[in-house]
Specification:
This protein is α/β, with parallel strands linked by helices. The protein has two domains: 288 residues, 3-Layer(aba) Sandwich (Carbamate kinase), CATH 3.40.1160; 118 residues, VC0802-like. Helix content is 38%, strand content 24%. It has 13 helices and 16 strands. It has an eight-stranded mixed β-sheet, with helices on both faces. The chain has a six-stranded antiparallel β-sheet with strand order 12-13-11-14-16-15. Strands 5-6 form a two-stranded antiparallel ribbon. A hairpin with a 4-residue loop joins strand 12 and strand 13. Helix 2 runs antiparallel to helix 3, helix 2 packs across helix 5 and helix 4 packs antiparallel against helix 6.
Length: 418
């Protein structure tokens, strides 16, 4: 069996869902189809959540607009809309009822309960449409089977418990095609969790691992993995194949083509990952596998925007290394802040993190008794794999370099525009 994952760009409208069905029709193997929320639905639901939490009734109209967007897709796709509209109406009613209840006021918890509906709605529509083309399709609610801890917005998988459920529920003796959600899971207590922004790739890799899939195919709106974001560097080139290690290095540095956690479950079972274009389904794309080699070594450029560079200094000028370093990184972990780059000297440590201001402010407040902290905001982290002098000059010109870090194969800069 194989796992196909379709991102939001590939199911943003009725035409995209028709293309999805055409791609599925060409595959004869058993399939798990993992689907993200439609287009900008996640962003839309984040706006609904924000308005709801601060008590602005505009959340009603924002939610209604999202409902209408999904209904317009249904109108285009279905002649008989009874089944799909009925399921969608029930799901929307559940969210509306939930938002009439007393708020918990914990943002991360509420985020997962509200924003997760995007994946539920997209998969309902995709599954119902596939049923009009194939007789052996089943929709599954992954929240009841992919179990996680209660670290909301960045949940950890409970592997053994989940594997037992996943192997039992995906029964290919009963159905050939299963449609389910990416990005979301559920606690043992039945509360919805999410796996981190853009986490549908990770879901596909988890299911592939647990079901011993032959391969995973991630269908995107690009021809494969490129050596740069073409919106940043228009002359970006496609990489035909890369190793698991290369993919991990790229995603850690901020490459957005796949979720950073995707590779490990696939590497553990030696399952290849293909990144292919749903706009050109016949294209070769890029393959990520254990024994891949770069046929032509070219620089790979990665830009991670919306960063903060934090400098932390012990107030008593004690060495950072040892107990101080342990306490500092324990605080980062407690506040759910992921470190993208770290540079330590004798009495200071510089850390580059995503600009999640409430978390950063809380961290600095917790450290203020023992440490002084200053930060530079609105900075970028630029990385180059297989760098050259020309490649460095290309992306650092007209930028102030605040921090530079080099290894034999990778160079990273924290910069800001000048």
């Amino acid at each position: 069996m194989k796992v196909y994952k379709f991102g939001g760009a590939s199911v943003k409208d009725a035409g995209g869902i028709r293309t999805l069905a055409e791609i599925v029709s060409r595959e004869q193997a058993n399939l798990v189809v993992v689907v993200s929320a439609f287009g900008k639905t996640t962003n839309a639901l984040e706006k609904v959540l924000k308005a709801w939490l601060i008590g602005e009734n505009v959340y009603h109209s924002l939610l209604e607009e999202t409902y209408k967007n999904h209904q317009s897709v249904i109108e285009e796709l279905f002649t008989d809309k009874t089944a799909v509209s009925g399921k969608m109406d029930i799901s929307f009613a559940r969210l509306k009822e939930y938002m009439l209840s007393e708020k918990r006021r914990d943002y991360d918890f509420e985020y997962d309960q509200v924003v997760s509906y995007g994946e539920i709605w997209s998969t309902i529509i995709v599954a119902e449409y596939l049923k009009t083309n194939f007789s052996d399709v089943e929709w599954l609610d992954i929240r009841e089977n992919l179990l996680t801890d209660d670290r909301f917005r960045d949940a950890n998988i409970l592997w053994s418990e989940s594997a037992n459920r996943i192997k039992g529920i995906f029964d290919f003796k009963k159905k050939r095609i299963y449609v389910t959600q990416g990005f979301i899971g559920g606690t043992v207590a039945g509360q919805t969790t999410t796996l981190g922004r853009e986490g549908s790739d990770y879901t596909a890799a988890i299911l592939a691992n647990m079901l011993d899939a032959e391969s995973v195919v991630v269908w995107k709106d690009v021809p494969g993995i490129l050596n740069a974001d073409p919106k940043w560097l228009p002359d970006a080139q496609k990489l035909d194949e890369i190793s698991y290690k290369e993919a991990v290095e790229m995603t850690f540095s901020g490459a957005k083509v796949i979720h950073p956690k995707t590779i490990k479950p696939l590497h553990n079972k030696n399952i290849p990952l293909y990144v292919r274009s749903f706009l050109e389904p016949g294209g070769i794309g890029t393959i990520i596998k254990a024994d891949a080699t770069l046929k032509k070594i070219i620089p790979v450029f990665i830009k991670k925007e919306d960063q903060i560079l934090i400098s932390i200094l012990p107030k008593d000028f004690s060495f950072v290394m040892g107990d101080n370093l342990s306490r500092i990184f324990h605080s980062f972990m407690l506040h759910g802040i992921k470190v993208n780059l770290v540079e330590a000297s004798a009495v200071s440590i510089d850390v580059c993190v995503d600009d999640e201001r409430p978390k950063v402010d809380s961290l600095i407040n917790d450290l203020k008794e023992e440490f002084a902290a200053i930060y530079n905001e609105k900075v970028e982290m630029l990385s180059i794999r297989h760098y050259t002098a020309e490649a460095i000059e290309r992306i650092t010109t007209d930028r102030e370099i605040l921090l530079e870090q080099r290894t034999r194969s990778t160079v990273r800069f924290v910069v800001r525009q000048v």
